[in-house]
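Entry 14. Ran structure prediction on the chain below.
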Amino acid sequence: MARADRRGKRAGGEEELAAKRSRHGVVAETQVLETDQVASKAGALVFSIALFAAAFGLVLGLWWLAAGAFDTVSVAVALVAGWLAVSTVHIAQQWERIVVLRFGRFNRVSGPGLVFTLPIVEYCSLSVDMRTRPVPFGAKETLTADLIPLDVDAVLYWMVWDAEKACMEISNYSLAVQLAAQTALRDAIGRSSVAEITIRRNQLDKELTQVLDEKTSEWGITVLSVEIRDIVVPEALQEAMSLEAQAEQRKKARIILMEAEQSISEMAKEVGEAYDDNDSALAIRRMHLMYESVRDTGGTVVVPSSFAEGFGDVFPDDVGKILGK
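Output, structure tokens:
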């Protein structure tokens, strides 16, 4: 009963929150997150456990056959044998490479599959994931060239192509890539204005990819792409920028209108000059305009006598006399 009451209260609280959002004109955004499916390493762990158990049991069995009983020494020897077996045979997944050191010096990069090492002499320093990795990063309240703070979210896709350099050249290559990406994004924002950032998003992605790839190539890492997901302008500046954009659009509309009027006036001037020396063409044009005015509506045009005098040289004499009355 108590659990049902808690569920009822939770549902009531969610309905109340949704009602408040709808009253204030806020629409809740539904985010669908897929379950993160990470490749399992359980097989390698089970193999190590089985190998340890096999070596441990084998030593105890041989000890039993030789001495006929178990004691502390036999258990200790069995434990050492199991540890040596686990230290000798390793499993690297298909996407992994294992950096092997011998007496502290780099010896080789092994994998995938079974990796054999000499106990005590050699050891696996680092297991490097060679797959492509997506890393979200961003820049919060970063000033642009026109001194406007922006919040920018992006995604970085990168991968390790040289496990030796990733192990030897830098201590934490994953953290280094994230910090380098964030620094490069802040520098790019500081060199550009808000308009340039919003208009040149694709070009900005390419520039960031090139800069980061040049920097991380020394660590055996390549940057595949950088994709900017969102650019957030402070609410206090959104209204001012909206008014500025509206004013700019009105300016462009008026300029286009003035250019159209200029073209029309030039064409009207040319037409007037063409009709100036040809009265017959002007009369035909008048008749054409009158025809166009009644063609679609099917109406009747009554021509005043003073206006009909302009058609005297076009109409026959009898028609001109009739309209002139």
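The chain has four domains: 42-128, 133-233, 237-277, 278-325. Will compare against last week's run tomorrow.
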